[in-house]
Amino acid sequence: MKPIIKQSNKKAAFTIVELLTVMSIIVILIGLLVPSLNMAKRYAKKVKQMAQFHSIEAAIELFSNEFDGYPDSREVDPTGQPYCGAMKLCEAMMGQDLIGFHPDSAFRSDGMDGFGRDLYPPNPSQDNLRARKDPYVQLESAKASKLEGLYANTRGFDPTNYVLCDVYDRATHRITGKRVGMPILYYKADTSKDWHDPSAPDSPGNIYNYRDNHELVSLGMPWDPPPTGPMPKLFADPQATPAEPEGKRFYWNTKNDEIDTASRPYRADSYILISAGFDGEFGTSDDICNFDWKYRETLP
């Protein structure tokens, strides 16, 4: 009879070297996958932001068809109070209370019509509501927020004025605690002008005026504490001088390179929309615009 060979009770196990090898491979794979996942996430957000812009553009065209022109974007209202392009865009699309735009609007920060009538009262009457236009942008996609919900110090702005926010939920709403985006900047083209001069940002001949949202951007980023000194300016060189004036970056970033016979902006006959992008900072390479723009890292 053949002897029965007893099976060993010793269990097979990984050696330290094998474990370290497997762990190293996993770390390498994670290192390769994480950047790809981040890029995919950013791309998905960009697509979502462009979709929001398309919705806003369709709404602006509806507004233009009804009122024979795009909403104003100047930095102040008729009384001289701060009321910039971003806030006027929100009023045009949804009204100052998000119920609807009043056709008698003078685009005033206080919601008055210039004759002592409050167009957006706290408890609007039925006549008031019947006079309004339905919101051109649905509340769910507009992501509207009051300034006081974004910034600790709104300075000269009325803190109850609304802005439309982008899809990048970079900030925490100061009242609700929910994540919200940065304001969408809006600039209307002045078609009576014919220039776009990066070397002369304050030229009266420029089609676009970078100051339309200058003071809003100067509030900084909502997650930073209120500044004690000068704020960064809209797309500005922090070391601005007469040779490198404030606003130069805005004009370089919105310059249409396909036209080489003159300095012309993109969308010279309509308007520009700008999102601060993934980092929440206006004037950086990840900004999203309603045109295919090219960021210039250095200014000439």
Q: Can you walk through the features of this model?
A:
The chain is built from seven helices and seven strands. It has helices at 16-67, 85-94, 126-131, 139-142, 147-150, 214-217, 248-253, and strands spanning 144-146, 162-164, 171-172, 179-180, 185-188, 271-275, 288-289. Helix content is 29%, strand content 7%. The chain has 300 residues and is mostly helical. The longest helix has 52 residues, at 16-67. The radius of gyration is 26 Å and the shape is globular. A three-stranded antiparallel β-sheet has the order 5-6-7. The chain has a two-stranded antiparallel sheet with strand order 1-2. It has a two-stranded antiparallel sheet with strand order 3-4. Strand 3 (171-172) and strand 4 form a beta hairpin. It has one domain (22-289). 35% of the residues are buried.
- Regions with pLDDT < 50 over 5+ consecutive residues? none
Give me the secondary-structure category. Answer: mainly alpha
Helical residue percent band: 25-40%
**Series of H and E elements:** HHHHEHEEEEHHEE
Approximately how much beta-strand content do the residues carry? 5-15%
The overall strand count is 7
Question: How large is the radius of gyration?
Answer: 26 Å
Tell me, rounded to a whole number, the average pLDDT: 86
Biggest sheet architecture: 3 strands, antiparallel
Give the neighbour order of strands across the main sheet: 5-6-7
Outline? globular
Report the span from N to C terminus: 96 Å
Number of helices, where a helix is a run of at least 4 consecutive DSSP H or I residues: 7
Give the oligomeric state: single chain
How many structural units, i.e. domains?
Answer: 1
